Amino acid sequence: MARRRGFFAELQYQQRLTQQRQAQQQREAIRSHNVAVRESLRLAREQQRAADAAIRASAAQRTAAQRAARLANIAAREAAAEERNAQLAVAFDEIDNLLNATLDVDDWVDLESLRESASSLPFDRPELLVLSAVPHYRPLLDRPSFVAPTPQSGLSGALGGNRKRSAQLATAQQEHLRLVRQWEQILIQTCAANAELRAQWRQREAARTAELDDARRRHERAETERRHRINESNARLDQLIAGLRERKPSAMDEYVGIVLANSIYPETFEVSYEHSFDATDQELRITVLAPRPDAFLTTKSFRYNKTNDEITATALPMAERKRRYASAIAQTALRTVHEVFEADRAAIIDSIALTVAVNAVDGATGHDTRTDLLQLATDRADFLALDLARVDPKQTLAHLSAAVSPNPFGLVPLADHGVRG
């Protein structure tokens, strides 16, 4: 029998597993706000307040505060025990309703929904597309202009003559030359500083451009690899759909794997599958591997013990463990057959031969061994005639002439008798 999940089956399994974990986290979030938790938090706060009051209070008050703190601690611990019991109740409810949990679910899988789209990946470095900030350059000062001295008018100008005018002009020219030389020095410094700013900007731009080129190459490579993977996946999907139309055993095995991968069991009772389809007689053979009995729920409830300030677990009676485990095995068998037949809308599968088994260690030999706990063979018409929402799984298995271990919890193998074909 095939053991490993196929490509699409593994994808479906991981997706459903993620959904289950998200739903579980959501349930945990809801439960964390239920009455028991809120009461526990309130009482814990009261306990802390009482403890703080005991430190500050007088001797008489301290005694009263300490008593209040003890009572608050007791109430908080009792509330914590109730919260654990609430979680335990959910776990038992999941086990007790393994069959009912799947009846309102359409197990048919639209294979076209598994087709992937080749839409482009977003560029992961958009900040590299933005030009580096242009530097703030120092402004260039205007060249000093020569301003000739104003000639004196009237009598003073006439008396001074040309000699005085020439002296003033020479002085003005010297001052202008000094200002020009000073301006030239400032200009050289400003240009050098701006050139340095420009060089630094060009260096940043070169680094950005180089990094952008690398990022684009990586993006294009990722796009190419993604398109290649998507094309391969869609081509594989096309082969699967065509194989189902042609009723190829390998395609039917792949499809059944997808269906069973969608069937996520509680963490307290996880199963795995082996299956193979025989196209000649259109029979599907399935082995469901159930968890060992020693991994099954063992706690009945939690209780707070005031004497030692501990929360203790009460063991689930052995008779109850056996009953629940046997019920889980029976429900698993019917659930699996139901899911496969319902998912096979094309009615390719005429009959199912199912075995529920457990892998364990033989206590006598120490060797790994597989114990068959249930065997069922049924055809489509007989099984689909059942109203699974109203049946007793144990009686239904008897009605279908299934072979069932007299003690599944004890890993007692099936008696040597045939199974109805």
Characteristics of this structure?
421 residues, alpha+beta, Diaminopimelate Epimerase, Chain A, domain 1, 3 domains, 5-stranded mixed β-sheet, 7 strands, disordered C terminus, Restriction system protein
What does this structure look like?
- Residues 208-226 have a biased composition (Basic and acidic residues).
- Residues 208-227 are annotated as: Disordered.
- This is Restriction system protein.
- It is a single chain.
- By secondary structure, the protein is an alpha+beta fold.
- It folds into 3 domains: 29-96; 126-233; 266-421, Diaminopimelate Epimerase, Chain A, domain 1 (Roll), CATH 3.10.310.
- It is built from 9 helices and 7 strands; from the N terminus they run ααααααββββαββααβ.
- The strands form 2 sheets. Strands 1-2-5-6-7 form a 5-stranded mixed beta sheet.
- α1 runs parallel beside α6 and α5 (154-245) packs across α6 (249-261).
- The longest helix has 92 residues, at 154-245.
- The chain is elongated, with a radius of gyration of 42 Å.
- The two termini are 19 Å apart.
- Mean pLDDT is 87; it is low at 416-421.
CATH architecture of the largest domain: Roll
Q: In oligomeric terms, what are we looking at?
A: single chain
Strand order of the largest sheet: 1-2-5-6-7
- The top level CATH class name of the largest domain: Alpha Beta
Biased composition (Basic and acidic residues): 208-226
Region (Disordered): 208-227
Protein name: Restriction system protein
Question: Helices and strands in order, then pairings?
Answer:
Blueprint: H1 7-31, H2 35-56, H3 59-96, H4 100-103, H5 154-245, H6 249-261, E1 272-278, E2 283-289, E3 299-305, E4 310-315, H7 318-343, E5 351-361, E6 368-379, H8 380-384, H9 393-399, E7 403-404
Helix pairs in contact: 1-6, 2-3, 5-6
